[in-house]
Amino acid sequence: MDNSLIPAAAPNGPDAPAAIPHAEPLREVDINLARLQQMGMVTHDGGRTSVAEDFRIIKRPLLRNARAAVSGGVRHGNLIVVTSALPGEGKTYCAINLAMSIAMEKDHTVLLVDADVARPSVLRTLGLAPGLGLMDILLNDDLSLSDVILKTNIPTLSLLPAGRNNKHATELLASQAMSKLLSEIANRYPDRIVIFDSPPLLLTTEAAVLAAQMGQVVMVVESETTTQREVKEALLRLDNCARVDLICNKARAFNGGDYHGYYD
């Protein structure tokens, strides 16, 4: 697996993407599954690849915790944030693959949220245009989830874009409006698993604020690159989180391929 195939986030400044226009949001989008398969990612028709098998292992304890939440176990256990200490560790790659893998389940639907609001990359990685999304809901009382959620050609997978960037993103993510939105997302559909692609923990304040409101946190650690000090510092920012698990990404397996290790 070559995670380098996933494009890097575009910088702010003159080369940043143009502002999202105020327009009727696109309700249905087609994900090019053949393109994702060529990128080495999990797809419904991709067969039993090593990536697909890795994420089958990774998702199982997360789903158990999500089911426990329904019976009073992990609060908001069906809200799962995927983050990392630093950029470039593969968190978006893992968030998309995790969402794709869970979307194959017979008893669950998935909402994939691009919550890296300063440098969104979920839709771009999927080959889709940006649109109204999370930030717009928090800023506009007249917008609802149904106005901005994108249905996809995978019946069990929907997308919530990041929306337009805002300099008060941290405060918006910590607001009562965000808490209300998360409760609505978590409780409206008990079979829905919500995956949030978060900013890196050591780069922004938004990541820790977002993680504190989730039932489960998955931190992606790039093997042989991220230092132990960086991992420990990132974990300190998750002190208020009840459930934190680690994915060791880009590690070399015995057969020479890449490996995604899961640590409980």
Automatic annotation (TrEMBL):
Q: Which NCBIfam families match?
A: pepcterm_TyrKin (TIGR03018)
Q: Name the lineage.
A: Bacteria, Pseudomonadati, Pseudomonadota, Betaproteobacteria, Burkholderiales
The enzyme class is transferase
Q: Which reactions appear under catalytic activity for this entry? A: L-tyrosyl-[protein] + ATP = O-phospho-L-tyrosyl-[protein] + ADP + H(+)
Q: Which family does it belong to?
A: Belongs to the CpsD/CapB family.
Q: What is its EC number?
A: 2.7.10.2
Q: Where is this region: Disordered?
A: 1-20
Taxonomically, the superkingdom here is: Bacteria
State the protein's name. Answer: non-specific protein-tyrosine kinase
Short name of any one Pfam family annotated for the protein: AAA_31
